[in-house]
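ok so for the tutorial part 2 we go from a plain amino acid sequence to predicted structure tokens. step 1 is just haveing the sequence, like this:
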Amino acid sequence: MRKSFSFALAPEQLWQAINPWTFNSQGAQFGLINIDMGQTAHPETEQRILDEVGSYGRQLGRIGDALEVLIDHVKLEGVSPAEADTIAILKGQLAEVRKVKAKSVAAGSA
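step 2 — the prediction. this is what the tokens look like for a chain of 110 residues:
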């Protein structure tokens, strides 16, 4: 008995289990804006920090503000040109952030 030639353009079964409890592990998106927490040993702790302390943007903003204070009060005579460039780039970014914040406050969406 000869086997007939068969060729499939689609899988034999076209189904997908939809289980809302496993969406997160599959990279599903629930809303318009989602933050991927990445791989972490303590996702519950990171979520509590976001809820109780502040968003990543707010935390980074405060770190930037503190760095700017330190940069303004430290003598930078001994830094290399590459290090001076790094500091200048950071100060430029911080200035741009201030401009965006000022526009948001002026527009009433701060």
